[in-house]
Amino acid sequence: MTSSDLPLVSIITPSYNQAAFLESTIRSVLEQDYPNLEYILVDGGSTDGSVDILHRYADRLAWWVSEKDAGQTDAINKGFARAKGDILAWLNSDDTYEPHAVAEAVEFLRSHPEVGMVYGDANFINESGRVIGRFSAAQTDYQRLQCGYVHIPQQASFWRASLWRKVGPLDPSFYFAMDYDLWVRLARVSKLYYHPRLWANFRLHNQGKTLAADDRCWPEMLRVHYRDGGSWLGILPAKYLIRKVVAPLINARRRFMLRGG
What we know:
single chain, alpha/beta, nine-stranded mixed β-sheet, 10 helices
């Protein structure tokens, strides 16, 4: 089978002042063994040397830009507006793919036409790239997502462009939970499937949103819950109240992981 017989995969990387990690992210995409790949990188006007890195790889990128934008969600939407692929994904500029991830995801989607999005497993890694834990990925669906049972590593997720055209783009009013909002919209119209293969690495570091802005995630998830007719007596609001209590312990544990505990 030639590359022209394979579906085009478009991968978007949004970035802003992530020079410390950006090259590792770029290389993890460009070194995939899948031959029909379109890589788009949208930088928000970085001033830390990121643009020098982009220039080094410019001839291998389908398109890139470095200009002021309205944040990560805006950058991702800008990239997908340019994408021509049949299968879509985004990889943040501090995360990485594992070898063979794209090829395995494409093979699964080709073999399972009833599935709209497939996602695999992801490791947690620290600033130096050392594995410090495992993301708790698990099978979910629309009903479970509405209850806050997410368990989808965004870094290891691939979905069909035909569905994006139905439910996209991302809601630019979301700072943190734009991926959760997308999963809910995708699950409403198609099947999501967890394929237990290690596909990505989720980097935890003190400047990342997961640690620096975790308190903004659950209120945004509640917006999705109420928008879709959820009750304030539902499971998700109850989980939010519990999360507010235990969040300091969760973040303390993540920081302990970063210190090598």
